[in-house]
Amino acid sequence: MKVAVTYEDGMVFQHFGHSQAFKVYDIVDGKVKAAAVVPTAGSGHGALAGFLAAQGVDTLICGGIGMGARQALAQAGIRLFPGVQGDADHAVQALVESTLIYDPNTVCEHHHDHGQGHTCGHGESGTGCRHGECGK
Fold first, then answer.
1. What is the pTM for the complete model shown?
2. Domains with residue ranges and CATH for the chain
3. pLDDT by residue (tens digit) across 42-66?
């Protein structure tokens, strides 16, 4: 299994489409065998699913994520574990141990006017996210 985590400063970055890097883990026999931080080179929302597929990733752990990105990941055959917070390494270990706390219903929608109309599964419409920085 190859797992990617939206990554910034050791933590799960909270907005998939604004990820500047992923930490990619190779999992063999239930253990992390290798891990590396891979910069996205400026790829945006739509290109990130293809970027991950090209890295051989089959599983993604992230914070907030929009519907378009969810659909692109599904089309690429990448399993999704959204709504995760905290340390990236701990999140991957929890995934391996089947104890990862995530919210499958996490959906962030961002509009051109980021001061208005932001809704997220972890906050109230227009008030921002309670789960962390959402890239507004």
1. 0.79
2. 2-102 (3.30.420.130)
3. 666 668 999 999 999 999 999 999 8
